[in-house]
Amino acid sequence: MPLRIGYVREHFSSPLLQFAAVDEGKTFTLVECPSGTGQLISRLSKDEIDVAIALTDPLISGIANGSKAYKLVGSFVSTPLNWAVIAGRDADFSDISSLKSTTIGISRQGSGSQTMAYVMALQQGWPTDDLKFKINNDIRGLIDSVNDGSTSAFMWEWFTTKPFVDSGEVKFIGSVPTPWPSWLIAAHPTRAAVDDVRRFLEGLADYVKSFDSEESRETANVNFIETHFGYPAEDVKAWLKTVAYPKSCLTVSEQVIRDTLRVLEQAGVVTAPEGGFAIETFVNTEVAVLS
Q: How many other CB atoms are there within 10 angstroms of residue 289's CB atom?
């Protein structure tokens, strides 16, 4: 039975889409999760997917907070994610500092849009236990929420939100880059067979290597993202200057896990057990190398 791969259909996923087009469902099928990492984690828990390509911080915080639905099996994007902070087009909010004590829109509980709101609060010196959230499911719900005034702002990846800013539907008031590499890969510890997951990651690594090459960045990547996502070429080229992929999809950095946990603990998202976190429990070392 083919692996069910959960993913978010964004420009970051281009190497995965290229791999899937060639595989044609023989070894894996794609399951789109437009609400993001919170939805991916939920679907891992509900036996709706076997593998998730998802954001680093919610995956790590989920395991730290007791989830047994998955373990880390690989890496996908090695550069930080630039989270845009977005307010309604006619809202009075003009910068991040003006959002204190307001209600922030998030896609789902445990999503990147929520964990990064805690990081934003930490950077601003706000008490993180005062944060208030409203769940709005996806980017359309988040946009509607800031424009009807039920939330003050939301956070989403910059190049995904840029078309809505350019059209005047919402406004950009700041950004919060992640202090860690942005995308990891997780799999259910028993439902996803080790050999199948390794084979998938090895195949994905070939497409990642090709996509990340200087030659592909010049023309092929720009054309692919323009065609599949409708972004203007100048935005694609600007994004390509900011992103890098790992040399191997089958490694997970111990330092990345430690650094992410440290910031999430400071932000109040996770609480370390007595004696600290056992990093090896976060990773399925039958699949991935903990480096």
A: 12
